[in-house]
Amino acid sequence: MSPRSTIGPDTQLCGIALHPAGHTRSPAMHNAAFAALGIDAVYLAFDVPPEDLSAAISGVRALGMRQLAISIPHKERVIELLDDVDETARRIGAVNTVTRRGAKLVGSNTDWLGAVRAIEDVTAVADARAVVLGAGGAARAVVYGLRARGADVTVLNRNRDRARQLCADLEVEASGPISALENTPHDILVNTTSVGLDGDESPVDPSWICPTAVVMDAVYQPPETRLLRDAAARGARTIPGKWMLVHQAAEQLRDWTGLDAPVEVMAEAFDRAG
C-alpha cells in the first residue's frame, strides 16, 4: 500500500530511517495497518546516511513526528541522540524505535519481541538450546529475547571479539567462530548476519544444521534464503525473516497507539510490497 494521497493538519507523521532505503517494506506494512485501524497517520521511508543521523533526529523533533523506526546502520549510534532510552533497549545496546512521549524522544527495542514471537509461533523457547549467528544490533536483540524466554544461548560470529563482548554484555557464557556450529547441538538456529541477502550464500555448511532444529533467518529478502533452503532440505522447520519484521512492526504500532495491530493485514502488505 502506498502512502495516503491526502494528508491533513492532524495527520500523524511516522517513518523509518535507514541507509540505503530502497529495500524497506515497513511503509507498506504500517500504512496498511493505519488504514485497517482508521488511524490518521502516514508512514514514510527516509534514506539517512550515517553522517546525517543527528540532523535527521533534529528533524523528527522539529516536525513533531510521532514515531520513527531505526534500521541499519543507525541502531546503536542513535542512542546518544535521544532524551531517554528504556531499560530493555539500553540492555540490548540497540534502539529500533523512537517514540514521542510529550516533548521527549524515547528509544526502545521491539526487535527482540519480533524474533521471539516469530519463533514461539513454531516452537517453545524455554529451555531450548539456541545458537545465534552474528554479533551486531540484531543479534543483540535476538540473544536478549531468547535469554528472556529461558533459552540456553550460544553466540557464533566471524569476529570472535565482538561475540565475546556481546556475551559479556548480555551474560551469555558460550561463544565461538561460526564453524563451531558443526559441533554445537541446537534446537533453534537464528541467522542475524547479512550473509544470504543475495540468495545464493549461507553462513553455514548445510551439514552443520540439526535436522530437528527450527531455523530462522533475519534476512527477509529473498523470502527463502539459501540457509532456509538448506535447512528445509535437512528436515528442519524454517521461519522466514518476514515474521520477525512483521511482529516487531506490530509492537511498534501498539507502543504508540495502544491498539492491537492487525498482524495478518501487515503480513499481506509485506507480501504485496515484494
Name the average pLDDT.
Answer: 94
What structural class do you assign from the helix and strand content? Answer: alpha/beta
* Rg calculated over all Cα atoms: 18 Å
Counting structural domains, the number is: 2
User: Outline, from the CA principal axes?
Assistant: globular
User: Gap between N and C termini, in Å?
Assistant: 11 Å
Describe the structure.
Strand 1, helix 1 and strand 2 form a beta-alpha-beta unit. The protein is α/β, with parallel strands linked by helices and 274 residues long. The chain has two domains: 12-109 and 245-272, Leucine Dehydrogenase, chain A, domain 1 (Rossmann fold, 3-Layer(aba) Sandwich); 112-239, 3-Layer(aba) Sandwich (Rossmann fold), CATH 3.40.50.720. A six-stranded mixed beta sheet has the order 2-1-3-5-6-4, sandwiched between helices. It has a six-stranded parallel beta sheet with strand order 9-8-7-10-11-12, sandwiched between helices. It has nine helices and twelve strands.
Question: Could you provide a short overview of the structure?
Answer:
The chain has helices at 26-37, 53-63, 87-92, 111-120, 137-148, 160-170, 226-234, 241-257, 263-272, and strands at 12-18, 41-47, 67-70, 84-85, 97-101, 104-108, 129-133, 152-156, 174-176, 188-191, 214-217, 237-239.
Keywords:
six-stranded mixed beta sheet, 20% strand, alpha/beta, 2 domains, Rossmann fold, globular
Please specify the SSE layout and strand pairing.
Elements: E1 12-18, H1 26-37, E2 41-47, H2 53-63, E3 67-70, E4 84-85, H3 87-92, E5 97-101, E6 104-108, H4 111-120, E7 129-133, H5 137-148, E8 152-156, H6 160-170, E9 174-176, E10 188-191, E11 214-217, H7 226-234, E12 237-239, H8 241-257, H9 263-272
Parallel strand pairs: 1-2, 1-3, 4-6, 7-8, 7-10, 8-9, 10-11, 11-12
Antiparallel strand pairs: 3-5, 5-6
